[in-house]
Amino acid sequence: MLNYAIRRLLISVPTLCLISLVIFSLLKMAPGDPLSQL
Asked: Model-level pTM greater than 0.85?
Protein backbone atom coordinates (compact mmCIF):
# COMPACT_ATOMS: atom_id res chain seq x y z
CA MET A 1 0.00 0.00 0.00
CA LEU A 2 2.88 2.35 0.77
CA ASN A 3 4.43 1.61 -2.62
CA TYR A 4 1.15 2.53 -4.30
CA ALA A 5 0.92 5.83 -2.42
CA ILE A 6 4.52 6.74 -3.24
CA ARG A 7 4.02 5.88 -6.90
CA ARG A 8 0.85 7.97 -7.12
CA LEU A 9 2.61 10.90 -5.44
CA LEU A 10 5.55 10.71 -7.85
CA ILE A 11 3.19 10.62 -10.83
CA SER A 12 1.02 13.49 -9.59
CA VAL A 13 3.89 16.00 -9.18
CA PRO A 14 4.87 16.20 -12.89
CA THR A 15 1.20 16.07 -13.85
CA LEU A 16 0.40 19.11 -11.72
CA CYS A 17 3.42 20.94 -13.12
CA LEU A 18 2.30 20.19 -16.68
CA ILE A 19 -1.26 21.34 -16.00
CA SER A 20 0.04 24.55 -14.42
CA LEU A 21 2.29 25.18 -17.42
CA VAL A 22 -0.58 24.66 -19.87
CA ILE A 23 -2.91 27.00 -17.96
CA PHE A 24 -0.17 29.63 -17.64
CA SER A 25 0.59 29.53 -21.36
CA LEU A 26 -3.11 29.74 -22.25
CA LEU A 27 -3.48 32.82 -20.05
CA LYS A 28 -0.40 34.38 -21.63
CA MET A 29 -1.71 33.78 -25.17
CA ALA A 30 -5.19 35.11 -24.39
CA PRO A 31 -5.78 38.70 -25.47
CA GLY A 32 -6.30 41.31 -22.79
CA ASP A 33 -5.75 41.13 -19.06
CA PRO A 34 -7.16 37.96 -17.46
CA LEU A 35 -7.81 39.75 -14.16
CA SER A 36 -10.00 42.37 -15.80
CA GLN A 37 -12.18 39.66 -17.35
CA LEU A 38 -13.02 38.09 -13.99
From this structure: no
